[in-house]
Amino acid sequence: MKRFGRMGAMFALTLSMVMLGACGNNNTGNTATTGNQATEAPAVANAGNTKEAKDITLGFSQVGAESGWRSANTKSIQDSAKETGYTLKFSDAQQKQENQIKAIRSFIQQKVDVIAFSPVVESGWDTVLKEAKDAGIPVVLTDRAVDSKDTSLYITFLGSDFVEEGRKAGQWLSDQYKDASEDINIVELQGTTGSAPANDRMEGFAEVIKTNPHLKVIASQTGDFTRAKGKEVMQAFLKAHKDIDVLYAHNDDMALGAIQAIEAAGLKPGEDIKIISVDAVKDGMQAASEGKINFIVECNPMLGPQLMEIVQNVVDGKSVEARIVTEESTFTSEQAKEALPSRPY
Amino acid sequence: MGKIYKHHLFWPLSVLAALLLFNLFYSPDFFSITMHDGHLYGSLIDILNFGAPLILVAIGMTLVVATKGIDLSVGSIVAISGAIACLTISKGADQNVMGLILTSVLIAVGLSLFLGAWNGLLVSVGGIQPIIATLILMVAGRGIAQLVTGGQIITVTSAKYAYLGSGSLATLPFSIFVVAAVLVIALLLTRKTALGLFIESVGCNPSASLMSGIRANGVILSVYVFCGLCAGIAGLLLSSNVSSADGNNAGLWYELDAILAVVIGGTSLNGGRFYLTGTVIGALIIQTLTTTIYMIGVPPEITLVVKAFVVLAVCLIQSDSFWAVFASRWKTRHYPGEKEGIHHVS
């Protein structure tokens, strides 16, 4: 029995080695042919377009599906990949950095043409990005940035400017209360601690409201971008502070949770407590059109088409700008009511 | 006096009292309870309402731990149960029909019973170590929940479903009554029938219990089914509280909080004796701590550190070896034999 086990192990080992070898050969064969194509192409066909759309493989590692925004983002990328005919290797990191690093490593092993990902957190990416660079695979950051000092590790960062979103939110509030004679108490529901949108939306907001001495953030706590946490934290805020005038939530889901807490406290969201939120997902826009959210700063998740354009440019060897900002607008309650029927997500 | 000190609820209760006392000094508003449209409103009520799902999960976990097992999959069952209930309701034409709500609740409860039985079978019949057997569902369950929700957050607009988790009965949150009912049933079953004894004996020594005529496998299977049921009900409460199902985040890390509540409550992870009331106090300590942290405005960056320190303190206070170290230090006379005893224990 024991002997058989050992034999079996040996057999398995040999088999796996053979297969690994085969895979290795296969891959080198592939790269060789693509390499040939790349060198031959300029001579034969017109410059640039060396790869057919169906030959381009994009590895994309998503943060997770933590919010409606994220789901819309995922859908946009999947749809536009289908439209352009690229092969999309999609991986969901379930909000864990280690999953994302694993996914990127597997993309490197699979020798995809371009790797795109939305980093779960800002820091700790240097090693894996270096591996991608060494393998000669260009990396595109989408939606969230990394704090890496070496900007040569990635080609470009496509996404919203979160600081600007924070500023827009702060600006609206500043305008609303520019004639205020007494203190306006603001509570803030932060996103996941340490994430780029949470840090930047807080920073941009603080930067603008600093100019008005009456605007004061009296409490700020993380709601992890989720409804349940948003509700729980808001309920505690309502108990701890009797005179909250404004709520600034870093995303719609937390604002929606907080609205339930405010209603449970017998107050009217949007009137007794003004609510500012970021994202503009469907449920959030719905609440805004009902007057429960006063102001929403849009954070556009439809990155798909722009991402595919970048992928094409990168594969063609064209230069890509180091920072590409998505187009975004803002909505007041009235504007939300008008825009709601035509929103794609 | 010595007897009170020795009682298994002494330390959990004093920790809870200490937390409340801290709040009394720091924010006196903590204890204010007012009436708001026919229901009570205040931080204490919030703690009970938000703590309800955790208490439920921890009750189920206590019985599993008593059989020397552990159930890591409760968080995932919470997510699945909430997801399937919300999905069923969102498919209905009129979300407020009582039949639809009942169907969805029954489907969710049935599914969580099945998932509990799956864990139980793996542990009892399959003979897999509990931590591994339930780890399977912990990992796979999140995926199942996301499959059910399609990666989206399902929002329901059913007032009747929302009643489960955020409605109130006789001025108190409805969820408290659900918890009370489950607790009473668990207490009656384990303390008024021989079942409690069976569970404890299986936890101490499964083979010896089998020899003395207890069907160890049956007992183990039933505690996992019960644990699944508790997690399923908790999932219903959680999702109904925010009227939406979030496959990704609902019940995330619940298993760890539940195990912590069980341990704070005085039940040993080595199986055997278990204390359901202690577990309830343990869960309340965790929820009170969370609410306190929000109320006093601890910066989010150090929230977890503060929590960790309080939990560390609670566990050290309850550790006999920890006290023994102090006792031997303070004592002036040392006997060699006694010292050996202490070393043996630790």
Poorly predicted spans of chain A: 18-48
What is the CATH topology classification name of the largest domain in chain A? Rossmann fold
Annotation field: number of helices of chain A: 11
- The rounded distance between the terminal residues' Cα atoms of chain B is 27 Å
Q: What is the 3D form of chain B?
A: globular
Provide mean pLDDT of chain A, rounded: 83
Biggest sheet layout of chain A: 6 strands, parallel
Q: Secondary-structure element sequence of chain B?
A: HHEEHHHHEHEEHHHHEHHHHH
Task: State the low-pLDDT regions of chain B, or none.
Answer: none
Summarize the SSE layout with pairings.
The complex is a heterodimer of chains A (345) and B (346).
Chain A: H1 2-44, E1 57-62, H2 68-84, E2 87-92, H3 97-109, E3 114-117, H4 126-134, E4 139-142, E5 156-159, H5 162-176, E6 184-190, H6 196-209, E7 215-222, H7 227-240, E8 246-249, H8 252-264, E9 274-279, H9 282-289, E10 295-298, H10 304-315, E11 323-325, E12 330-332, H11 333-339
Parallel strand pairs in A: 1-2, 1-3, 3-4, 4-5, 5-11, 6-7, 6-8, 8-9, 9-10
Antiparallel strand pairs in A: 10-12
Helix pairs in contact in A: 2-10, 3-4, 5-6, 7-8, 9-11
Chain B: H1 2-6, H2 10-26, E1 34-36, E2 39-41, H3 43-66, H4 74-91, H5 98-124, H6 130-149, E3 153-155, H7 159-166, E4 168-169, E5 172-173, H8 174-192, H9 195-204, H10 206-211, H11 216-241, E6 244-246, H12 254-264, H13 276-296, H14 303-318, H15 320-330, H16 336-345
Antiparallel strand pairs in B: 1-2, 3-6, 4-5
Helix pairs in contact in B: 2-13, 3-8, 3-11, 3-12, 3-13, 4-5, 4-6, 4-11, 5-6, 5-11, 7-11, 8-9, 9-11, 12-13, 13-14
